[in-house]
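Tutorial sheet, problem 5. The three components below are modelled jointly, 1407 residues in total.
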Amino acid sequence: MALHPDRLFPADATTRTIARDLYASVADLPIVSPHGHTDPRWWGENPAFANPAELLVIPDHYVVRMLVSQGTPYEALGIGKEAETDPRKIWRTFAAQYHLFAGTPSRLWIDHSLQTVFGLTERLSPANADAHYDAIAEKLAEPDYRPRALYDRFNIEVIATTDSALDDLHHHRQVQGSDWNGRVVPTYRPDAVIDPEADGFAANLDKLGEITGCDTGTWQGYLDAHRARRAFFREMGATATDHGHPTPHTENLGRAEAATLFDRVRAGKASAADAELFRAQMLTEMARMSVDDGMVMQLHPGSFRNHSPQVQERYGRDRGFDIPVPISFTTALKPLLDVVGMDPRMRLILFTLDETTYARELAPLAGAYPSLRLGPPWWFHDSFEGIRRFRERATETAGFMNTVGFNDDTRALCSIPARHDVSRRADAAFLAELVTTHRLDEEEAHAIAPLLAGDLARDGYRLTTAPAA
Amino acid sequence: MALHPDRLFPADATTRTIARDLYASVADLPIVSPHGHTDPRWWGENPAFANPAELLVIPDHYVVRMLVSQGTPYEALGIGKEAETDPRKIWRTFAAQYHLFAGTPSRLWIDHSLQTVFGLTERLSPANADAHYDAIAEKLAEPDYRPRALYDRFNIEVIATTDSALDDLHHHRQVQGSDWNGRVVPTYRPDAVIDPEADGFAANLDKLGEITGCDTGTWQGYLDAHRARRAFFREMGATATDHGHPTPHTENLGRAEAATLFDRVRAGKASAADAELFRAQMLTEMARMSVDDGMVMQLHPGSFRNHSPQVQERYGRDRGFDIPVPISFTTALKPLLDVVGMDPRMRLILFTLDETTYARELAPLAGAYPSLRLGPPWWFHDSFEGIRRFRERATETAGFMNTVGFNDDTRALCSIPARHDVSRRADAAFLAELVTTHRLDEEEAHAIAPLLAGDLARDGYRLTTAPAA
Amino acid sequence: MALHPDRLFPADATTRTIARDLYASVADLPIVSPHGHTDPRWWGENPAFANPAELLVIPDHYVVRMLVSQGTPYEALGIGKEAETDPRKIWRTFAAQYHLFAGTPSRLWIDHSLQTVFGLTERLSPANADAHYDAIAEKLAEPDYRPRALYDRFNIEVIATTDSALDDLHHHRQVQGSDWNGRVVPTYRPDAVIDPEADGFAANLDKLGEITGCDTGTWQGYLDAHRARRAFFREMGATATDHGHPTPHTENLGRAEAATLFDRVRAGKASAADAELFRAQMLTEMARMSVDDGMVMQLHPGSFRNHSPQVQERYGRDRGFDIPVPISFTTALKPLLDVVGMDPRMRLILFTLDETTYARELAPLAGAYPSLRLGPPWWFHDSFEGIRRFRERATETAGFMNTVGFNDDTRALCSIPARHDVSRRADAAFLAELVTTHRLDEEEAHAIAPLLAGDLARDGYRLTTAPAA
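Model answer (structure tokens):
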């Protein structure tokens, strides 16, 4: 069997027993998934997945980048012009190199998916590649393997998608109009209409004006348009916004200055410094709107997106070439926090790819400002060691209650239960260590485990209110 | 019982036994406290503490900030205008949220204080809040719970306070004139007369001139005034100076250039860059004086003080809103080290809130320059995980002998034995790991444990000389 | 006995047994040493080592700096004018302070050398200093303790030296012309002819012109001269180049701009910014040449060399005063990667002294770009904890196959087997943890262990081709 029941638990027998008990108490709790990138079409149209390669290989940038890093061309993975079109051949390429994933979270997630979703307990290898392919392909043709059925089977209570501010959310409307009981909520992600360096920024603002009837040629009209879209997202069930910025810089310009900056940006005359300033200003504007409408704000900064222009040009965005840069929050967030940091209505959840900020900045900030919460380990750090580092570095200063449980943050549907399982196990391991070293009583650990497994996410994202009709 | 005798020891049975033995050998050694923030009035006047809230809640910024971060208003903690004035109600607010501290060092320190100082072995909770309050209040009325009695009971050998350069040290004089045998020494902390951005800087310099009879209107007179105050502090028992700077930058300007800079600073015409340059220059001046008078120099850089202007304005300084920033020592300290780094008379103890500097910069610097020693983990990192990270990252390059044991650095009297206990346990755990993995023999570990528990502090701070009369 | 057979293995019994088995399977594999600083004269002339102090103390900057940091003058270690000349006295000074190395890798390496090379199982101490000295001195007079015999005894398969671009490699020629079967290959290290701030840069370029017959007065001729020297190094067996730069910055200037920059640099008119730009440009030029000639490129950035001018002036370079600075690769490497990053012919091995880059930048970069591999923990981090941090932080994102096994990187001959032993034990410990926590099967761990112990180095440095005649 690929999955050992004690995986990720500490080696020490006493500690392992405690971890096992803690995990057992949360293993079957429903999944709360407040931040992720599943395709709304899955939930709206409930289509069958085409084949194993399109389900598990091609869209998974963790998998693709690792294969590419060891010399596999994108084409062999079905990506780019003149790419391989036979999904079985793509699958074989993947299986032939499955050993590359030893020691990585992808390996844990894929083993988990193969076993728990498809009943395949033998580790993927060149020898069983075809047999596994056939077994998965056969299942994918069954109604039980369509997205909504998997949502139900995975025991998901609520899942948030991440949606452009310009999206009409018709897939969400489809869900709401259906007789399916799944709760799928959108998230307001306005990067494309906030970042002057985004592709088609001017056209995006034009479209934003058309959709909302606001004059996005003026600063005031532009802000009104955001308010209108946020209200629409709220109506559609959204409880949160999300902001992917190159840096965590915020700014708080006077009204006139902001309007002048907007004019430059709107006219396409923004310098790189203007663009950064505008993004910084807009974080504070978004925060002000969050105070008004109660939307939880998320900030995901510090990724240098599409680092290789060659890869982006030939194979597109999100191909595994987003590389973190060093960041610092302390000074960068101050303008925003000076405005809303002490406001009890505000909630800002912070994420980082620079782990040095956990103990140095994020825990001290979240351990002081009532508006701040710490998001779980993100992206490269959504792993056993990553979760351990987060808890070890953040807990002593911020405690548990200033964190918001787990986000799977994934576009790979079958990895959702796998990721939550890793998180629950890693947290059980961490809590068990606290118990064995007498920093926590076992009964306290048992009270904290379900908070980390779901309650803090529900509360942190304000998902406890009734879903939209 | 709240405190388990094996707390903080490794889970592995063999390692735990070794850790237990190592700890037992140092558990009862006297406490050397060479850096901290206890109130000199306590030692001079030996007053009774007013009530449990004023002893354990209101002045403890670790406790206050955590409660604030989860929505408790400062007012409910007795801070600010229209604050709660009933200490029992403040205590109840604290007790109601004691679960927030799970996994934090505050929890360990408070449990330790309640049990070892007040005999309260049941963990604080809403249910026992009143009973605990009454028990503590009753004790506080007894003479045995006054500061000097606690000093004696805590087995403190020497404690250093941190004092403004302008302080007349009359509380220290009271101690020295009393028949009490405690050793309380001041520390020269001249930030208020060195930092051009300090509140009332110009007036502070005027006062410095008055006190010393030096002309603090000139660079030379200003330096002389420092020399005079240092000599006074030395006479009063001080062995060290302390410098809390925003950055570790040092500078070594020519005499004329320094004098010109001083003139700008003195005239209140310093730009932000001038202020930073002046602070940097003054670190080197202080180092030169240390070479002359033998005072050990401490540098505590990298905290963004009073991050929230709203909190500072309404509730004052030191309310839990000091947030670390990234720092680097390698280039910043070079001007100072070029002057005094190789001088055998010089001793500079470095502290950091940016743990990335431990292995990257501090251990290599202290493992080379004879003038440098590493201070223990500071502030947010004065915790079990923080101490472990420090030892794991610093020891391999700097060894043990380039560190200076432990500082409790606290303004919370009852936490002193608790903090030293955590430190001794954490060091025992670290040493035991080295023994179990055969990086150290058990006999060597037994030789090192008392160094870490006291000798390195005595030696590092030059406290072994006889106390002032 | 100084060395315990279970040293560095995890405390937990089950995990330790797995680590022991893994280590046993690789303990006796030949040593592949693709990067280091042994003296080519040793291999060419095979001289006897003069005495214990000259073998084990004076040239070991790890040892010297630690003694200096605790107050020993360089002179007492045989360094500087009026230095101690009696090697026995130097040895005694070392032995008297051997306790300073408790908890450091030097202690592990020296214990290992004394025991496995000289049969001395009692730990060095003041009491046995003379006896150890005599025993070592006696051995050093025997032919079995000359460099080539030690190479054979240490079971070294191949060792790379690091050589100036201007070196005539005559010691390598001596090796190749001898009947000894050792494989010693040079490495092309052109810092002295690339860094405008290097001592004697202009003269170095003159010499480069003379040696190659190229006109190093022009940009084109200068590049041709590099090509010629690289070809010569290749003929002499080199498979790699190495670049020690203050930062990892790279640049990709247009041809005309680069030529103009070169003219300024060549004329000795380079500003500090010019010098940095030129170094940055040359990394990209070196990368282009690597694509052409197949030489593996190594980058070792981020050390502030000779931090104390006083030490450098009195005692020379490489005296333990090189201190790391914070660095970041993501933006810095982009110009180079935009040119060669996706080229399957390119291989660039990255090293760092700033461990924050492991998880944040290096693993994401190496886990995406096919041209990149991660070098092992370098310098201060070539230690048990350093190796653990590297594996814990890099593996989850980059896997094992994007790393290149171990480098001993040493100028201390006897430490070579000691360092490889520490590395093999640390990797066995890490793999065993993965097995115990069921992140890896034991059989997989057994497949990975020999990769880490040698195969990845052979492959990573393209050493599998037949040695030069």
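Marking note: The radius of gyration of chain A is 22 Å. Full credit if you identified this.
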